[in-house]
Amino acid sequence: MAIIGNIIKGVIQIKDTLTPDSNPVENQKEVLKSLLETAKDTAFGKHYNFDAILENQNPSTRFADSIPYFDYNKINDEWWHRLHQNEEDITWPGNPDYFALSSGTTGKSSKRIPVTEAMIESIRNTGIAQVFALSNFDLPADFFEKEIMMLGSSTDLIEKEDHFEGEISGISASNIPFWFRGYYKPGEDISKIDDWDTRVQKIAEHAKNWDIGALSGIPSWLELMLKKVIEYHNLDNIHDIWPNLQVYTTGGVAFQPYEKSFNALMGKPITVIDTYLASEGFIAFQARPETTAMQLVTDNGIYFEFVPFKAEYILEDGGLAADAPSITLAEVEPDTDYVLIMSTVAGAWRYIIGDTIMFTDVERAEIKITGRTKFFLNTVGSQLSVNKMNDAMMHLEDKFGMKIPEFTICAKEFEDGFYHCWYLGTEQTTEDTTKIAEAIDAFLKDANKNYAVARSKALKGLKVKLTSTDTFNNWSAKNKKKGGQVKMERVMNEEKFKTWEDFVNQN
C-alpha cells in the first residue's frame, strides 16, 4: 500500500477543498498595486511616477497611459544595462542574484533577463500550486511516491561577479525546495553536466535505477532523451524501463505537433499536462483534465495586459506599434488572439514576451498559446499564425499517416511571385511533396479566409520539402545549443531561410 502517497494525495485533496475560489480580475488589481508599491522608489518607478498611478482612481488605465511597451532590447538599452554596472534599485528594488539567458528562437546572442528572489519565489509557489491542482486529475496514490525526471538546461550556472547566469530551467532546478530533492531526477550531479549529449548519455546509463512517474521538459529534446534511453537498453518503449510513468508535464512549445511521435515511444497512454514557464516567469498551467487550456497565474507576482493581435499593431520585427491599445483581464473576450504583455516582480514593465494567446474560458482565465508575434506570416496579406500552421501539420499527419514533429516556413519571392516554402521534419521522406503541398493549401484556404484571399491574388502557391527531424535538431545545436529552452523557429525571413537551406543541402 502506498502509505506516503496516500498521505500526500490526502493533503492535496484537503488543500483543494479548503482553498476558496479566487477572482482572477480582483487578483490582478491587487498584483498591480503590489508591484507599483514595491517598485515606486526605484529609478523606473520615479521616472514614471508610480506614486501618481497608485493615487489614481483607475490605476490600470493610468498605468497603461503612462508607460510605453518594452521589448527586451528597449528595456535593456534604457534600464537593465545599468544592472550589469552594479547599480541597484533600477526597475526593481536591489540587484538580481540571477540572470536568465535566453536566445529564444532567434539564434542571436543571449538575452540576459533579471531573475530576482521574488521571481524565484513566484515560480516556486506556482509550481506548488500546480502540484495541488493534481487533485483534479484523479491520479493513484502511488504516483505521489514516484520520481520526476526534469530535463532542462544545466544547473551548473555561470558565476559572474555578484550574480549567476543560466537558462531559467537551470535556475529553477538549482532552487528546488529541499523536500523535493529526493524525487528530482536526474539528480544534482548529472544536472550540472553542461554538454547535453553527455548529460543524456548519463541519464540513459542510470535510467534503470530510477522509478520515474513523471516527465517534464520541452517535447523535442525530451523525445531525443527517451529515444536514447530506449536505444541504450534495447527496449520496445519507455514503459519497459519506467513502468510507472503516468504523467508528462510539457511546455515551451505547442505539444500537438509532437503528439504522434511522442506517443510512439510509450507503451501505454499517459496524462499530458501543459505548462507555460518562460524566462520572464511562470505564466500558466493546466489545472484540470477537462481541457488542454492553461489557467493564467493571476495572483502571484505577474500583472497581465492584452493587445488585440491585428496586423496593423504588429511591427515587422514582431514588436508592437506604440499606439496599439491594451486591455485588462476584465475586458478580454474568448476565441480572440491577443499579444501578451507582462509586468513582474523581476522588474519587467509592460514587457512584450512575444507570445500570442487566446482565452478559452474567460471566467477561469484559461488560455492557449496560439503563436509568436515574430512568427506571424503576413506576406501579401496571408495573416498566417503558428496555431494555423500547427493545425495544418496535424491535418497532414492524419491524412498521410505521417509524424511531423518539426517544421519551418518562409514566404519567399520567386520570378513569378511569392510562395510559402515549407520544410517538414519527418522520417517519411519519400512521400509525394506535390500532394502534401496541395493538402496544406486546401486546409489553410478553409481554415483562414485571409490566406484564401491571398492565394487568389499575390500568393502563388506552396513549395514543400521533406527532411529528417535530425536536421532540425542539428540546426538548433549548430546555431544555439542543444536541450534546455531551445526551440525551432517556425517562420524565417528570406536571409535566415537561405542559411537554413544551405545547411540542409550540406547535411
TrEMBL record:
InterPro entries: GH3, GH3_C, GH3_M. It comes from the Bacteria. Pfam families: GH3, GH3_C, GH3_M. GO terms for molecular function: acid-amino acid ligase activity. GO terms for cellular component: cytoplasm. Residues 391-495 form the GH3 C-terminal domain. Residues 297-362 form the GH3 middle domain. This is GH3 auxin-responsive promoter.
